[in-house]
Design a protein that fits this description.
4-stranded parallel sheet, TIM Barrel, alpha/beta, 367 residues, 14 helices, 4-stranded mixed sheet
Length: 367
């Protein structure tokens, strides 16, 4: 029996695999064998053939940013002609537009804009809660929270306490990229070390907030960096239990500075490998999200057979990937059909993975 098979059998036995074993699976395992084990573990955790999705939108309040990440095509330096910052009222109009189309979650993100005071962010949360009580304000990544702390002179904990008082209960996982300092120094040197991202999420969890963990791979990282990332979030989850889901996606090079060094997109096989490995390795995460949006609808469907149990969001509005020329549009009806075509029962969920409605029945329907 090969060493890889020994590791896969260990995972199937419900025993936790080590970072070294995870690295071996990532680099050597047969993709279909990896996928089979991941799917078995998915059904052990979620016995029903249900795949969830959320109706959401990802509007942006500003594209002004002073952090200059090499992988980002979205940001603009302060003062350039196409830099913008929306007023609170303009952001709320975008949320209203999404709510009218069924959104229950709004993932709001922007840049690191030094001209915005903490009150701006707090008012956004308060007004969203007041006007749209059924919407979860899934606002601001860890790096935005750190930047708020820097600008306001408060600690990260104090900023998160203020956000929570204003009505925020969840935090998106963006800004993690790869939680390896070697990688971060190359692609986002001003964003700080991995410990900074982890500290924000640890503190949020301690305050009773829930969050997602993300990973953007397919650029300058080595397999060891991917394992460092998975180990970091697994360890934090052991500590806090605050993560709801893991969401990996691949780097999109077009219109970014990083394209000079990384001109090609990561292939679908690598995405499926990472989805399957994350289901096996992240034994303390309930949900692994397949991103039809970032990887394409067909690859998203296949990922549902490689350990993923969630199909992400319908994404009524999105501009960060769009800035790289990557545009994938969908509708609730299409997401429901894609899940059904893949052989699963679609279910609409909340930000916290509570089922709103189960959509049993045949193609083309949607109750």
């Amino acid at each position: 029996m090969t060493q890889v098979q020994v590791i896969l059998d260990k995972a199937l036995d419900g025993r936790r695999i080590t970072p070294e074993e995870g690295l071996q699976l990532l680099t050597e395992a047969d993709l279909l064998a990896l996928g089979q084990v991941a799917q078995a573990l998915r059904f052990r955790k979620h016995p029903e053939p249900v795949v969830t999705f959320v109706i959401d939108a990802n509007p942006n309040y500003t594209n002004v940013c002073v952090t200059d990440c090499l992988f980002c095509a979205f940001y603009r330096k302060p003062g350039v002609p196409d830099a913008y910052t929306l007023s609170v009222e303009e952001v709320l109009q975008k949320i209203e537009w999404a709510v009218a189309r069924g959104a229950t979650t709004v993932l709001l993100q922007g840049g690191h804009n030094p001209d915005l005071p903490l009150d701006y962010y707090l008012t956004l949360i308060q007004e969203t809660r007041r006007r749209f009580p059924h919407v979860t304000p899934h606002f601001f990544t860890a790096s935005e929270v750190r930047f708020m702390a820097e600008v306001s002179g408060l600690s990260v904990r104090e900023v998160l306490e203020r956000l929570k008082e204003a009505g925020q209960t969840t935090l998106p996982g963006g800004g993690a990229e790869i939680l390896s300092d070697r990688v971060r120094r190359r692609i986002s040197p001003k964003k700080g070390p991995a410990a900074d991202w982890l500290e924000v999420h640890r503190t949020a969890h301690e305050l009773g907030m829930r969050s997602t963990a993300t990973m953007m791979y397919g650029h300058v990282e080595a397999p060891e960096d991917i394992m460092a990332h998975l180990e970091a979030i697994r360890s934090l989850q052991d500590e806090t239990g605050g993560f709801t889901a893991f969401v990996p996606w691949s780097f999109k090079p077009d219109h970014t500075y990083l394209r000079k060094w990384v001109p090609h997109r990561s292939p679908p096989q690598q995405y499926l490998r990472i989805i399957a490995l994350s289901r096996i390795y992240l034994d303390n995460f309930d949900h692994i999200q397949a991103s039809w949006f970032s990887e394409g609808k067909k690859v998203g469907q296949v990922a549902l057979h490689f350990g993923a149990d969630d199909f992400g969001g319908v994404l009524l509005e999105e501009h960060v990937h769009e800035a790289t020329g990557h545009v994938n549009r969908s509708s609730v009806e299409e997401v429901v059909d894609l899940i059904r075509e893949a052989g699963f029962i679609p279910a609409q969920r909340t930000t916290l993975y509570e089922i709103i409605r189960l959509m049993e029945g045949h193609h083309g329907g949607g109750a």
